[in-house]
């Protein structure tokens, strides 16, 4: 597995774990990040979407779909911008910037790996 593929694979695993947590034990997750618990369905739907997205990443790795690696690197690097705006507008708790930072770091990792491999 190439370094860029590994970065996307690990991100897919990360999304799977977060998605499963949101799907099956959402209030544990919310409690850990200091957000009020909920019984609304949206949090579980978010979990399903993260799991579905993780499958795309893992399949992209299996087939070495470098175009998906490029797209995900770019998108993950922009998440921190959106999260920062949401925090600034007080629409989201500042703790969520940790997840934005994880996305950003993963996106940079993928980008640098691809650049080193000569596929960016």
From TrEMBL:
Q: What is this protein called?
A: Uncharacterized protein
Q: Has keyword Transmembrane?
A: yes
The species this protein belongs to is Algoriphagus boseongensis
Q: Which residues cross the membrane?
A: 7-29, 41-60, 67-89, 95-114
For this UniProt record, the keywords arranged alphabetically read as follows: Membrane, Transmembrane, Transmembrane helix
